[in-house]
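Feature request disguised as a bug report, sorry. It would help if multi-protein outputs had a clear separator. Right now it looks like this:
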Amino acid sequence: MQNKPYNVLVLCTGNSARSILGEVLFNVLGKGRFIAHSAGSHPAGRVNPFALELLQQQGHNIAGLRSKSWDEFAAPGAPELDFIFTVCDNAAGEACPIWPGKPATAHWGIPDPAGIEGGDEAKRSAFRTAYNQLARRIQLFMSLPIESLDKLALKQKLAEIGHIKG
């Protein structure tokens, strides 16, 4: 049985929307079993206001959320990562830093809600969809018997979860 919490990193290119949603959801749904962080290969420098609005509406604490570089998590003193999830196709195809630990990785591509054109309601709807899709995948991941799966079986399960739409 795992005594320490699992460290999770959720990656995207800009670290302003999907990865931020994932970070918050992992921390909330994980109830201390998971400590999540998010980062981007080319951070936007700010969190998308629609992401912050949605998180607040859902009752989540948004204090301290910021757009940051994935380099922070490859530097000396960074947390040893157990899992890394890419949530955008661009970040999944980039050459990543060398991560501390030997994290299991998976790609869980989510359409970019920040890229939606149209009015504010269309954008809010896209953020809700991304939030719900991430929540579903994270809940499925957290229901896995992580401690009893070998690396290959775990990798396969993580990939399967990444294909779930609803």
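(second protein starts here, but nothing in the output says so)
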Amino acid sequence: MTKELLRIEGLHAWYGESHILHGVNLTVHEGEVVTLLGRNGAGRTTTMRAIVGMTGARKGSIKINGQEAIRLLPHKVARMGVGYCPEERGIFASLSAEENLMLPPTIAPGGMSIAEIYEMFPNLQERASSPGTRLSGGEQQMLAVARILRTGARLLLLDEISEGLAPVIVQKLAEMILALKAKGYTIVLVEQNFRFAAPLADRFYVMEHGAIVKQFAQAELSQNMGMLQKYLGV
């Protein structure tokens, strides 16, 4: 078994007075693709945000590479090699695609060069001088992921990256995830698109009401479809 890169134990998180996470427990090993499944409001995005310190109060344990991170500010978590791609993407509209790629700081050695980014995302090379506002939704999503890869982060938290995109783009994103996994990246996906996530993940965690209610491996997917129908309506 590869080493444990992320371990969350008894994680509670709040937004103001709202208690969103209720004792989340999960582990992610180096080189894995792990998917958090659940309905909207189940707590999946809040789990991602809690890992990087972007919720309100947090209680419990978040260990990254064995180091406790529950009290760290977001920029300190990033320096532990964590990259978060939020659902809203956050592209700088007035900057070109390539200028967006030049912005991220180096947080760890081994970040991808511009040439390596363009090899993985040929669309971005074609649109290198286009302002962010002119990029399609799919191109913006590729750019959002590519910016993280520039930083040297090896643990990637990807939130709903396939949402609202054409099937041909979703397929390209699936190929991207498999290529990153082959390069040794560790990926945590939050996905509503079960058909996109199902073939990619090594393991699945199902969330409901801010807690993990089930976990299983890729090999156990078929025997858990009944349970997923109940929790997800897939």
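Even a blank line would do. Unrelated, but nice: Residues 11 and 60 are 4 Å apart (CA to CA).
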